[in-house]
């Protein structure tokens, strides 16, 4: 299958002293929790000017506008694209990501699309093709790549600090508390999947960013007619296995642990600056904090700022995108690969009658 | 069984398993009802007709119950929620022409350590030291008053210590073992009036089906008489802990520490709930780091942070096995799952959930 080549670099076309004008689609949870604050910070630094926002629910848009008072509320998505802007941030529900990104690109806007960039690889390919056809930038919201902690892990692995890897285990999740607006968030049509498509996108992106593409994929989840709340992914990377356990219903310590021949690295999920490093023979285990080259501390919202700034820099100065949309497409491919190999997780608390009935009904559906 | 069963509080431990079991066994059409859309995350693994309604919102509840013949009221929450939800739920059920309401009360209405001879006819008291018990007593009384109009049939179930996958007595106890806060008063020799969750659901099904159950109240439990140590041992063994190390003497008083009062206060819980998950994770990780650094600096061992609650201390010293004879005689109730099998399934769930059990291989803790 041929994948359209995206535009990662574009000649500078914007004066550096002018804020980049942007518009934002989607005023749901991710915008209220992160994008609104990040845009507010970037506006105060003079990097961006938020020209407009849109949400089909006027009440949600009004709540966000209260935090970004200079933004006008568009009555429709078309109205949003008609505003004078260079960049569109697409933070709508995942089911809209591809179509809205394509519309924005065709309207002449560079796009930062929140993850997942689409709900299928074919949609992602259409989006990449639209970016290439219009010679515009397309970035994807894989915010964890902006953390000094995850960048440092990559550098430590590349520098061979803990030697050849032996195993990787990741647990992520807990009781689901993302403030979703409606039940449709849990439909396959709207979101393209369950916990794997949701937080799994972040997790699998980090693993492939650190280790490359896996050689083998094994996948099981607990979906029984709906979308999965729990899943177990086992990936084979060269000489070691990675086990990923994701959950929306029960918490265990949210921890990634990388065991190498010469030591180990542990990272607490969403810890932006700190990792735990243990080196064999040194009798030392310590928490190591990292900052970016500017020496400034980074919180979670700063990571969103950096994500937007990356696209702004690319628009202004023609520098390459730090997280191009091809990364979003790659992780989508891996998610689809998992679903294609799907098996039912072992759920030992289910009685024999339940399992038999489910097997019979699954057979009927097929 | 024909008809649709609404499960109110479907995201809670008992509600969630009720939906799962009824759906998978094909026993009835099930309609999960939850307070907020995000509470459907776990139940969305089934394709079902779910609804969102606050248990205090009469109008929303009436809409959610439409077309349902039965309602299982499994709403958990603080004492105020327990009491306040009763009237809107009953009135909404009446407005939606629901035939029967199954109210999940608790054997705690008799206290955590009831006297010998306690049964469904024993007098209830609302001056107990534990607010939950009083709230359940008030809820039962209010439901009794409301149901006098005969608009909806009511059956009240009083299960004992309901355990199983996702319960505080299974997953919660595993967490306590791992973080060093687990304890068993007096070695856990007291009687545990256990009720495996599937047995409680079996009783719910009978309460729906048996015509004579209307207007009656039933204690529900497992067949076996077990101790608290019996309940906790399979979990401890699966995780590689020795129960003997967590035995503590019965406390002489229950004056809670400032830390305990803070953790149990509604204001603190509300504050924690209001924080975005990354902030909470960060704070938790930071606290963990601080504790670890403190341990390293002082050279102290993993000293458990044991905060003994009055509720647990009373439970662990219980000397009475509550009877379920009335349910047996009138409903035909017989526990469907043995205690041994219930423990096997519960430990199986721990493995599923990612706990470092023997089944999850060594070195993963």
Automatic annotation (TrEMBL), chain B:
GO molecular function: aldehyde dehydrogenase (NAD+) activity
Protein name (record): NAD(P)-dependent oxidoreductase
Every NAD-dependent epimerase/dehydratase domain range: 5-221
A single Gene Ontology CC term: cytoplasm
InterPro entries: Epimerase_deHydtase, NAD(P)-bd_dom_sf, NAD(P)-dependent_oxidoreduct
Name of a matching Pfam family: Epimerase
Organism of provenance: Mesorhizobium waimense
